């Protein structure tokens, strides 16, 4: 009798599983096959900033013409996922501005040093700007003036350094001449 109960329970379980699968399969299949890609409404030339925690809770749009932002939801740092606490507010702010909000996940793995990665990023950026000069950042008048002042300051420092070097050489020559030098 015990064998019959065990066999009966197994049969009942098997029929239950088969019935559940056969009832659920068409629904799951319908759901999976009816998933369609969402159309993207990006026009050629649409631009927007790439944000992480360094741009603050609301991010910073670079231009009034920006159409979207791409916010970092978090990232993998040598195998560990760390979320960005600024992500939710950056997305909310973007949507409130009537712009499209996009997401990316950062990943850094220990196979390459940070310096190698940064060097490659700079080279890739320079190559892109060379091909697309219209995408290069345009400095404001204030930034241009500050750069010019910095350049002038560096030139002045170089001139002072050159004069100091020339004076030191002259002083050396005078010392060697007055102290019985051959000059």
Give a short overview.
With 183 residues, the protein is of the alpha/beta class. The chain is built from 4 helices and 4 strands, in the order αβββαβαα. Helix content is 54%, strand content 14%.
Chain-wise SSE layout:
Elements: H1 2-33, E1 50-51, E2 68-77, E3 80-83, H2 87-96, E4 100-108, H3 114-131, H4 141-178
Parallel strand pairs: 1-2, 2-4
Antiparallel strand pairs: 2-3
State the low-pLDDT regions, or none.
27-33
Shape: elongated
Tell me the structural class.
alpha/beta
Beta strand count:
4
Domain unit count? 2
**Main beta sheet, described?**
4 strands, mixed
SS field, number of helical segments: 4
Distance between the termini: 125 Å
Order of helices and strands: HEEEHEHH
| Overall pLDDT score | 75
β-strand percent reads 5-15%
How big is the Rg? 34 Å
- The share of residues in helices is 40-55%
How would you describe this protein?
The protein has helices spanning 2-33, 87-96, 114-131, 141-178, and strands spanning 50-51, 68-77, 80-83, 100-108. With 183 residues, it is α/β, with parallel strands linked by helices. It folds into two domains: 50-135, no CATH class; 141-183. Strands 1, 2, 3 and 4 form a four-stranded mixed β-sheet that branches. The longest helix is centred in the C-terminal third of the chain and has 38 residues, at 141-178. The model is unreliable at 27-33 (pLDDT under 50).
